[in-house]
Every structure is written in structure tokens, then in C-alpha cells.
Amino acid sequence: MQPDLLHRADAAHALQHFRTLSLLIHCMTNDVVQTFTANVLLALGASPAMVIDEQEAAQFSAIADALLINVGTLTADRARAMRAAIHSANTAGTPWTLDPVAVGALTFRSDFCKELLALRPAAIRGNASEILALAGMSAGGRGVDTTDHAQAALPAAQALARQTQAVVAVTGEVDYVTDGVRTLAVTGGDPLMTRVVGTGCALSAVVAASCALPGDRLTSVAAACSVMAQAGSRAVAASTGPGSFTPAFLDALYALNGEAFA
Amino acid sequence: MQPDLLHRADAAHALQHFRTLSLLIHCMTNDVVQTFTANVLLALGASPAMVIDEQEAAQFSAIADALLINVGTLTADRARAMRAAIHSANTAGTPWTLDPVAVGALTFRSDFCKELLALRPAAIRGNASEILALAGMSAGGRGVDTTDHAQAALPAAQALARQTQAVVAVTGEVDYVTDGVRTLAVTGGDPLMTRVVGTGCALSAVVAASCALPGDRLTSVAAACSVMAQAGSRAVAASTGPGSFTPAFLDALYALNGEAFA
Amino acid sequence: MQPDLLHRADAAHALQHFRTLSLLIHCMTNDVVQTFTANVLLALGASPAMVIDEQEAAQFSAIADALLINVGTLTADRARAMRAAIHSANTAGTPWTLDPVAVGALTFRSDFCKELLALRPAAIRGNASEILALAGMSAGGRGVDTTDHAQAALPAAQALARQTQAVVAVTGEVDYVTDGVRTLAVTGGDPLMTRVVGTGCALSAVVAASCALPGDRLTSVAAACSVMAQAGSRAVAASTGPGSFTPAFLDALYALNGEAFA
Predict the structure, then answer these.
(1) What are the backbone angles phi and psi of residue B19, rounded to the nearest 5°?
(2) Nearest chain B residue (CA) to C110
């Protein structure tokens, strides 16, 4: 089953749609990437809100357009609040996305992520080592970084998609997005992005938001990956290292329009 | 009761005073905006410190020049520590400022903020939806964003100021600062600032610090709004999007002097 | 006992070594500086991971190359997790570094830091007021800022090094790095760095990582100080204030090579 390339017109259409909707995104994410995640969503026209108290998280996921669950700095309190938010989201019909940061080597988050797989995520976004570990096919990467190539994790991503009914995105030099039957490949981006904390976590937030778009979810998630990759390539061209990359990347996301995909 | 425009000489004078005092500001703020808040205060010559343990927060608010309470990522633990800090601040005579982020739709923070109104805040800074909700005149905005114009919230701000004896700043395209009797209007800033997370929260930190200035508090708080608006306008002129805005804004705050208001 | 200047060839050699090792650094640091700390380590080729749950922290410090303990936003939960991580690090032979932020005036962190001194830190990095307070020779600075000069804290640093067997770095206009017998002085940097939150905290993370280098630890820690000072000087030259400093600093760290010390 060879992956197809995402059509440029589909990416352009999804981006245009994304900008018009002012999506309200409930982000329960790790402490390291909150500012960057919020700024990425704001640059794309969405409204992020980071609500973390257990009671408030359950209230808020019911009124948000989408929910992000990122386990990067998981604690017992945060896990309780995330569970409450997911259950409330599922009742309300809010799609939720899982970013299983560093799953594999660390027991608490690994058990938690596996528990969450039964709670019907709309999408899962991880690097190759995370997707392999989540699918039970390896013991994980090195800290938060992958030790595997995205292509090597494609069978794991497809199995995970079939098991959970989620769209699974395994990202790397090439991103693969699959629903277990169809697979789309997304190119672009730059290795410099791995020298800036939170590029993957912020992508997961855009993936979460894209699950609130009407239309084919596989295409929407692949479009989210493509938007970030295109903005990343442009930002690298406009910057002189990982420091100047960040402002250039947010400016690129803010300016990006359909013509970027033509 | 028509608002008066803040006098430029008053803004220039307050800024000059602010820079000379090296104010020590205790910030109990949300997890998303801590870095930006600290950098804004540092650029203006103040010394921020984020102390959050309950016992330490009570110790620190007694020796700080001012205290900021921002409920953006409130938890039960954080609420306890904030209460302890406020009581200690009140005993020591440290002025404290409330930023009621997203008050209205979320029950826990709404109850908490209303409880705090009885604890004599020196100032309250919010967007229109937050000030309307805090005054009991609406159910709040959409997530952390306002769905109302600042001018529409001016009567609520004035009522809230009379009720609490605090200076209330309701910020938006035009900012209004009121003590319930007098009202000052502050212009400047740019809509691009709503595409950068933390500009409002950082303003609240500067408002908190400005409450430690000697002299008329209404004028000091309005001057804080004006300083941020002036730096914002300059930064927008020097940047190409929300990413390059942030470094340009901090540089503008650092460079801003009385001549900017002439 | 006059300090010697760090040899430039030693700094260049340590930097080169640092870049080749892709060190995995477990950062338990304060909420304000996590993003900047991660980006500093990434710019230098290391892999940061912020793991904070008590059980996970103990798992992770055993597999990391080095552990950083920074008490800036200490809470009771965080203190428990830090203790677990340190004990596990000591069992596994992972070197750990203490940044005693604002020790002195605040009781909880002061007691905690003094308890940690018995747990064999590899290195301690603080400003003059922090090192004086930790050595029991003063009551601390003003918030997170020093009120003393680094040179005035050198005897305290040397006493602390002899007491704990740690390499102690007291940083300021000139940095002093001592093992209680030998002392190295490191010049460079710029006062503008005190107007950017987290430059000291990020230095502590680089110090922590440098403790994982083979060879003389005193030299490695002094080299870490020198790398940050050199990049700081270059970034100040390339920037127009504290806002543009941050991207310029990360770019400078990313580009820095041995020739910078020639």
C-alpha cells in the first residue's frame, strides 16, 4: 500500500477554511511548549486556551471546537484532569488528539497513553519512536527524540489507526498520515526544526484543530502537516539559526496562503 | 461621564519614575505567559519573581513592591497559594492586581475571582468580556478572548471600581481606566497584538507594578496601558508578523522614553 | 589564591566535545525558563527532556547523561520528585547540578537546598547572593537578583566547594569556577543579559550537561560559562535590545565553534 502525496489544492483549501473559522482549541499540553503552541495557533487564526483544572477542563472541552492532549510533562493531577476533559469531549462530540511525547521508556505516561487509546481519539501525532512504542512494536526513543525513521513506523501507524479508528500522523523528514486504509505523504520542513523545542508539539495542536474542520479528516490532518512544513521551509530560508527561526516561522504561518501550495 | 485622554506628560513622568525604582514584582500568573511577562518587566527595569509555593508566596508578597494574581491556568493548589499571598500582601501593604482571565464561563475561576473582589485589589485589568462577567453583567467571552468592545464594558468597569475601590482597566482598541469617578482613555496599540499570546497578561503585570508608584494610582495605571500601547505601535511598525513582533516589542519597551509621548 | 584565566584552547576543546555527544539532559527547572533552557541545549546539540512526575523523574534521571535541579518555582510536589530524581541519579552515576534560585530569603527552598547539599551535587551554579546564602554567609539577594558582586562571593564559593565536593560556579560580570582548591575566572558576556529572563538558569543547564563530559570537571564547567559568555557577547553586538537578543543568542550558540575562542 503505497502512500499518495497530499494534493496541493487540498492543503490550500484546508488552510483557507481553517483561517475563516476562528477555532477555539483547548490545549492540555506540556509546560515547555505552551507559549509556542499558543502563538502557532494564534498565527493561523485560531483561539487557544490552556485550561488545566480538572473541573474546568471538563467544562471547557465541551464548549471548545477541539481538544489537545500532550503528555510531555505529565503528572498525576494533570492525568486526572485530562481524563475528565476527554470524557466530557466525547460526550459533547468535541474531537480530541493525542501527542504521546516520549512514550515507551517511561512507565506512567506509557500506561496512561495506552489507556487513552480506548477513548476514541480523533487523531494521534508522534515521531517514529513514539508511534512504534504506542503500537507495542518498540520500547521508545531517546528522551523526547526519535531514534527511528518515519517510514519505518508506517506499518505501526497503520495498525494503530485500524485499532483506534484515529487518523495517525507519524512525522519526520517525510510525514505519513494514515487512517489504516489510505495513507498520505507530506514533504517539506527542515532538519533545523528539530533544534527548536516544540515544533512537533505545536504541529499536534494544529492537527487537533484540523480535526474540527468539516470534510475528510485524513486530508485535514495531512494539510495541517503540510502547512507547518511549508512555513518551516520558508522560515529556515529567512533565518540564520534556530533562534531567528522562531519569529520567522510564526511570521510565515501568519502570512501563508493558498498560493504557497501552488 | 466622558473619559478624559491621559496626558502625555503624565505617561512620560510615570515611565521615567518606573525605570528608576527597580520594582520587585511578585507574579503569580498562568503557565503560558510567564516568560513573556518576566521579559516585559525586565525590559522596563523591574525585577520579576514567580514564587508559587503557598508558604513561600506568603513570605514573598510581603517583601515585594507589588503582587500580580492572574488566574489563566488556575488549579486548587495555585488558588490556595494565591489566597495566602494576597492576605500577606494586604497585611504588609503590598498592592495587588487581579487579571481575571476567561472569567465567566468557567465556574471555578469565576467563583474564585468573585471571592477575591472582597480582598481589596489595588487594580483589576481585563478585556471587555472579562470585566462584564466580573461585574455580573454577562456570561463571559469565548475562551480567553473578548466578544465585546471595551467601550461597552465601561459602565461595568465603573461599577466594579466603585464596588471594590480598585482602579479598573478594561482594555481593547481603546483602553479605559477608571476609579468609578474619573475615567481616562488610552489610545495606541494594534490588532496584531491579539495574535501574540500574553500581551494582555503582561500588561496586567505592568499595571501591578505601576500600583507601587507614588502618586495618583489612576494616572499610573493609565500610564502603564499607554507605555504598552506605544511600544506595541512601534513594534508593529518594525515587524512583519506576530513572530517578529515579540522581539521588536521587548526592544521597544527597553528603548522607550518620555520623548515617545511628546 | 588568585584565580587563573580559563585557557581558550580548553574552552574550544570542551565545546567541540559537547557538540559530538548529543547529551541527554534531564531538566527539572522552573516554569519560567523551560522553553529557553530547552532551546539553549538544543542549539548546542544536546537533547533536553523535562520529566517532572516523581516516578518518571526517578526512571529518567537513571538513563539521562546529566540532571539539572533548579528551584525557581519550587512546590512540595516538585521537591519530592526532585529528591527521587537525585537519589536515582546518584545510584546510576548520573551527575547532577543545583541552581539554588533565590535561596536565602525564602524558607522552603532554603531548607530544601541545604538538604540537597548532602546529596553530592557534581556542580552548583548561582549568582553571588545565592552562593553567599547557600554557604551561610548572607541572607540572600533581592528576589531572583543578586545584590553582591561575584568576586565578593568567591570565598563562599570555595568553602561550599570544599564542603560539598562540587564544582561551584558563581557568575556575574566575571564568572568564578572553583573546586575549593583551584579557581578559574571566565570573562565575557554583557549586562544586557540580566534584562533577559533565564540566561542564568540556562547556563546552569549547560553546566549540568558539561558535567557529563569526560576529563577535568573544573575545566568543563568553566568552559560552559565561557561558551555562554562568548555567545552572549556576539548576540549583544548583533541585537538592538533584550528582545532581539534572544534569537541572536540562540543563533550564536548554534554557530559557535572553536575559532570563537582563538
Answers:
(1) -65, -30
(2) B56
How high is the pLDDT of residue C89?
Answer: 98
The C-alpha cell at A48 is 487557544
Cell matching residue A145: 527524540
Q: What residue ranges of chain B have pLDDT lower than 70?
A: 1
Distance from C-alpha of A176 to C-alpha of A157, rounded to nearest angstrom? 8
pLDDT digits (tens, 9 = 90+) for C59-116: 999 999 999 999 999 999 999 999 999 999 999 999 999 999 999 989 999 999 999 9
Task: Classify residue C260: in a domain, yes or no.
Answer: no
The three cell numbers locating residue A171: 512525522
B177 inside domain: yes
Strands (E), B41-156: 47-49, 66-70, 96-99, 123-127
- We report the CATH number of the domain holding residue C195 as 3.40.1190.20
B165's torsion region: left (phi>0), alpha (psi -120 to 50) or beta? Answer: left
Contacts of C39 in chain A (CB under 8 A): 196-197, 242-243
Q: Are B55 and B44 in contact (CB under 8 A)?
A: no
Could you list the residue range(s) of the whole structural domain that residue B110 is in? 4-255
CA distance A67 to A85: 8
Residue C108: list chain B partners with CB under 8 A: 53, 55-56
**pLDDT (tens digit per residue) in B28-47:** 999 999 999 999 999 999 99
Q: Map grid coordinates 568553566 to a residue.
A: C222
DSSP A7: P
Structural domain total, chain B? 1
